[in-house]
Amino acid sequence: MKRTAVDDKIRDAVLELIAGGKPGQRLPRVRDLMARYHTSQRVVERALAPLREQGLVSIRRGAGLTIADGPAPSREYDSDCQILYRSSESRLARNLLMELVKRLKRSGLRVGMIGFTDEMAALEKLKARGQARCCLLQTNFEIVSVRFLAGIMEHANRVVIDGVSVTGIDADVIGTNWREALSVAYRKLRERGHKRISFLTSSHGARQIAMARREFDLLSGWVGPDPNPQLFQVDRLPGSYRPEDVLRALPVAADAGPNRPTALIIWGLVDGYMLDAALRERGIRPGSGFSILLLGSIDMLSEHVAQFDVVGNSNAEKLDLFERVVRARINGDGSDARTHYFPIYHLENGSIEVLSLDDPID
Fold first, then answer.
1. From CA 275, how far away is CA 292, in angstroms rounded?
2. Residue 215 and residue 309: Cα distance in Å, rounded?
3. Which candidate in 158, 198, 288, 323 could, as Cys together with 230 as Cys, close a disulfide (CB 3.0–4.6 Å)?
4. Does 84 share its domain with 58?
């Protein structure tokens, strides 16, 4: 949201108090600033966010808003941020980390990267690099052991995790609620008259993926022990699908049987050109006789190639949020760890056909 004059007034007033105060000194409470400037809590928090990111103020349980003590002396930490990433085929995951590293290093922060396939080997490498103010962990949907998390926390002051599969622990977790995205996508298709909707996703057991599959069963009204005939599962992680995986889920254009789906939701496909080629091979034109809706990033052209509708997050917002949270933790933000969900958007590119709405949707 755009910054306003009220934001500037609040921030300038707090900066003046910081300049004349001492570390640990209490500052006006958020509700006091709301009353003084006749504004909302959201505006006050937005005005204070840059000060928190710069490590000038901190919020601690029981103490409220205080002048930050500042980062601990550098001699106590060997690096500002260590990034642990599980090796994967996901190009988007790698790109996110590389851009984040560039941003952090550009401002003089000391950042290291450790790729791993074995958790214990990763901990040994982390230990050899000494203490870090913050550690960012990217697992790409794979299972994370409690022992691994405990080991990371021995060598890092704060932990940030890419993905919301691991929640309820003393670490910031950041990600997309793909179950919510699937629900939005399914509703969009139903609103356009589609009654037979299929879903292509990974068969992996990660909580987010399993919950999305369960959500599809609920949305499509499928019950019982038998497999849902409209659910297509790929034995690969999201981001690593092959052309044959996609072809297997696509109906044959000539098949006009009563059970033929009229729309397909795909989660985990990051190559829109591959999808376009598969559709051509099947003789399918998206938006004409068959509808395609992707779950992914609305601002990644390589995913939707300006052709397929997308429901999901903004990659630019994702990068900004990771940078903001990591910087805050590096700068000594002592507030409670929390779960950060990205907003869900719908980008229309014309791959959804509007069917006849004369008959009520069952």
1. 10
2. 20
3. 198
4. no
Over 50: is that where the pLDDT of 1 sits? Answer: no
Tell me if 356 is assigned to some domain. Answer: no
- pTM of this prediction? 0.76
31 and 83 belong to one structural domain: no
Condensed to tens digits (0 to 9), the pLDDT of residues 187-197 reads 999 999 999 99
CATH number of the domain where residue 294 is located:
3.40.50.2300
Any domain includes 331: yes
- 193 and 294: one domain? yes
Indicate the number of domains in the chain. Answer: 3
| Whether residue 221 is found in the same domain as residue 305 | yes
Domain that holds residue 98: 74-176+315-343
Is 354 among the domain residues? Answer: no
73-131 confidence digits (pLDDT tens): 444 789 999 999 987 666 677 788 889 999 999 888 999 999 999 999 999 999 999 99
Calpha distance 128→155 (Å, rounded): 10
Q: Based on the fold, state whether residues 96 and 162 are members of the same structural domain.
A: yes
297 plus 204 within the same structural domain: yes
In a domain, 349, yes or no: no
Which among 345, 196, 350 is positioned nearest to 264, based on CA atoms?
Answer: 196
What are the tokens at 203? 């068969």
Alpha carbon of 10 to those of 13, 38, 87, 227, 326: distances in Å? 5, 11, 44, 57, 24
Q: How confident is the model at residue 362 (pLDDT cuts 50, 70, 90)?
A: very low
Query: Which pLDDT score is estimated for 137?
Result: 95
Number of H helices, E strands in the chain: 12, 15
Both 268 and 152 in a single domain? no
**What are the DSSP E strand ranges found in 8-78?**
57-60, 64-67
φ, ψ dihedrals at 148, nearest 5°: -65, -45
| Rounded Cα–Cα distance for residues 65 and 166 (Å) | 29
Confidence (pLDDT) at 172? 94
pLDDT for the residue 69: 67
134 strand-pairing partners: 81, 158
The model's pLDDT over 152-205, given as tens digits with 9 standing for 90+, comes to 999 999 999 998 777 778 899 999 999 999 999 999 999 999 999 999 999 998
Indicate whether 301 and 220 sit together in one domain.
Answer: yes
Q: CB of 149 within 8 A of CB of 167? A: no
